[in-house]
Specification:
By secondary structure, the chain is mainly α. It has one domain (about 5-95): SMc04008-like (SMc04008-like fold, Orthogonal Bundle). The chain contains six helices and no strands. The longest helix has 21 residues, at about 5-25.
């Protein structure tokens, strides 16, 4: 596979994941984080890190809007629920497994 085709496929896969997460507003970030070790915020941070790496730096707010489909504060007000003590404990227990934010080429 040539490089441009690989990049197009990876970009399409990312857009598919973002679109899916925008649709699944019922999937709380803490639950995704506790299960998979990353969440919408991690995707936004990867987006921002990649933009800086490739010389087109965006703000974290712009990156969050690209992932959430709206400003993060708006998404939180509309969809985010208070996390339970059990969710918070699991979050702390799984911290060693949480995603590292870096650019992967």
């Amino acid at each position: 596979m040539d490089e441009m085709t690989r990049l197009k496929i990876e970009a399409a896969a990312f857009r598919g994941l973002v679109k899916h997460l925008q649709k699944r507003t019922d999937a709380q970030n803490i639950d995704i984080m506790n299960t998979a070790g990353f969440c919408r915020n991690c995707l936004a941070k990867w987006y921002k890190a990649a933009s800086e790496h490739y010389g087109a730096a965006v703000t974290i707010e712009t990156a969050q809007e690209a992932v959430y489909g709206m400003p993060q504060k708006e998404w939180k007000a509309k969809y985010q629920k208070e996390s339970s003590a059990d969710q918070q404990k699991k979050f702390e227990d799984t911290k060693p497994l949480h995603a590292a934010i870096s650019v992967v080429e």
